[in-house]
Design a protein that fits this description.
By secondary structure, the protein is an alpha/beta fold. The protein contains eleven helices and eight strands. It has a domain at about 25-45 and about 115-310: Alpha-Beta Barrel (TIM Barrel), CATH 3.20.20.70. The protein is about 45% helix and about 10% strand.
Length: about 300
């Protein structure tokens, strides 16, 4: 789907050796492939495995101005034991909160194995001076964040200042220290699939451990075609460098059916090696309950009322 024109104007020479072909995206072919993959079904005996994998891949998220330590503590309890009546349901991958609530999440999660993720870098706009963004990241890590979800400067990217975007990601990655870095592209503001591919490659070249579609604050958020563009960019980086970069679609994924569609696209594009929480996450605030209902249906043959599960 990608051709190989010259690098876009604005890339500094030092970036060129670190970037695979930027290319251009065949929009029609991309959307047709995404639609075709979305129609794939999985065998009944594999469905429970896929649903439980989706749970293990979730970043259970609360990013509201009214968030409190009590709300975060309740969310952490659900993250560790999503279905209190069924201890075989696995824990989620992480709980994602604002920096000032990292300590509350860290205390409640303890040694459960569930990671603490924190948004940073003036989330969701990214419109702050670099030193403020770096202080935001350092504070989150010092408070106990295992992972940092940063936002790129979309204004800089859309005005062609690619080197500025690259340099900021490099600096943020350094500030993360031991923490893993997820780079949010906010694809709903990028306008074209070509821009999504370009931003994906730029983020990976700058050191992103994961690339992420959206903040969840802008529509459209995650879509299958956008996710496919990003997965193909990850595939191209892996083929050229051997490096494995993770992917996180976030925003608008609310049903188990949608989650399975994303897992099918992931498997068909990157293969079984990426079917792990180490390399794929769902940004989820309302997805978990629907997946839990589907798990209960697979195990008992009957749907459980949504009222059975706590609201996040």
């Amino acid at each position: 789907m990608a051709h190989a024109p010259a690098l876009p104007r604005g890339f500094e020479l030092p970036l060129e050796p670190r970037l695979p072909r930027i290319g251009s995206v065949d929009e029609v072919a991309l959307e047709e492939r995404a639609a075709t993959l979305a129609k794939r079904s999985i065998k009944k005996d594999s469905k429970l495995w896929a649903l439980e994998l989706a749970v293990r891949m979730m970043d259970l998220t609360t990013l509201e101005g009214a968030d409190t330590p009590g709300k975060v503590a309740a969310l952490c309890s659900k993250a560790v034991r999503p279905d209190p009546a069924d201890r075989t349901v696995p824990s989620v991958a992480a709980v994602c909160v604002y920096p000032n609530l990292v300590s509350a999440a860290r205390e409640r999660l303890g040694e459960s194995g569930v990671k603490v993720a924190s948004v940073a870098t003036a989330f969701p706009s990214g419109q702050s001076p670099l030193e403020v963004k770096l202080a935001d990241v350092r504070a989150a890590v010092e408070l106990g964040a295992d992972e940092v979800d940063m936002v790129i400067d979309r204004g800089a990217f859309l005005s062609g200042r690619y080197a500025k975007v690259y340099d900021e990601i490099v600096r943020v990655k350094e500030a993360c220290g031991r923490a893993h870095l997820k780079v949010i592209l906010e694809t709903g503001e990028l306008g074209t699939y070509d821009n999504v591919r370009r931003a994906s490659l730029l983020a990976m070249a700058a050191g992103a451990d994961f690339i992420k579609t959206s903040t969840g604050k802008v529509q459209p958020a995650a879509t299958l075609p956008v996710t496919l563009v990003m997965l193909e960019a990850i595939r191209d980086v892996h083929e050229e460098t051997g490096r494995q970069v993770g992917m996180k679609p976030a925003g608008g994924i609310r049903t188990a059916k949608q989650a399975i569609q994303y897992l099918v696209v992931l498997h068909e594009t990157l293969g079984a090696d990426w079917l792990t929480p180490d390399l794929f996450r769902f940004g989820a605030s309302s997805l978990l309950n629907d997946v839990l209902m589907q798990i209960r249906k697979q195990k008992t043959g009957a749907y459980q009322s949504p009222d059975y599960f706590t609201l996040d």
